[in-house]
Amino acid sequence: MPLDDITRKRLLVAKRVFDHAAIQSMGPALPFRGILAVIAFDWSIEAAIRAGCLFFDPSHLPPNEFHPLLDRCEKHLLDTRKQGLPNRAHIVHVHNIRNEVQHKGRYPNASEVQDCRTYTRDFLADLFRLVWQISIDDLRSSDIIRNARAKGFIRDAEVAHKGGELKKAIECAIAALRWALLEIGDSVIGSFPGFAKGLAVLDSRNKVNEDYSRNALRVFTRMRDVLLSYILGLDMADFAKCSALAPSVVFAIDGTPNFFYFQDFNTTTDQVEWVVAFCTASIISIEDRVGDLDKPFGISP
Prior knowledge:
Blueprint: H1 5-26, H2 31-56, H3 66-80, H4 88-104, H5 110-132, H6 148-162, H7 166-188, H8 210-232, H9 236-245, E1 248-251, E2 257-260, H10 269-290
Antiparallel strand pairs: 1-2
């Protein structure tokens, strides 16, 4: 049975929640982020299982309780796929950690958060393959993005990441986010020349000091980023991490991105995955908040 549109949307929700949890789990090591990550990992598992139950039997709502929900899905799988629920012990472990966190107020440690991330991704990958014969990467979060330019960059990032082209993946992802911020910034804050080398700053002798001027531009650019992040509801700690991992981007007049690295590229696979997920989730969130990127909040450039 092919994957219908309603089920695809349900699975995209489960994948988006997983991506959000992964961003939380790999961001700055703050206790509340671990709590949010564990709860979201568990929720993404339940969302995928519910989608499976409704896919097999749309006439009956799945149980609300966790273990009866697993039993229902496992019965469907045994009847139709002759195989039980994959990695059941692992997802029960994730659910138990979530219960400890949510109901007993216990902070998860870093090892538990990473276990939840690994177990959840493995389960989703196995469930998608077993039930719908698709890869988890076949559900592209880029499909949700409405702006054509940003969508194109993110799709290129997804393809590059899947193919192991880490440098291209991180470049396309940061290009998408920077393009979105540039479009919004020009409308909401005002335009600024991308190739500016500094803001003229006078020294004590009333002469323009090039070092001061370059530093003033860096400060101005950071202030602009902070203001945009606040307006758009981006997590500043995550945005700072993303900016540190990814290269700087300058767009040419024709819109072609140019990338500048201030150190050798040695970003890990997990870090690239995080940057792609963060940039994708940020653009989706930004569009939810401002509407059309070309006319955010109804404001023309």
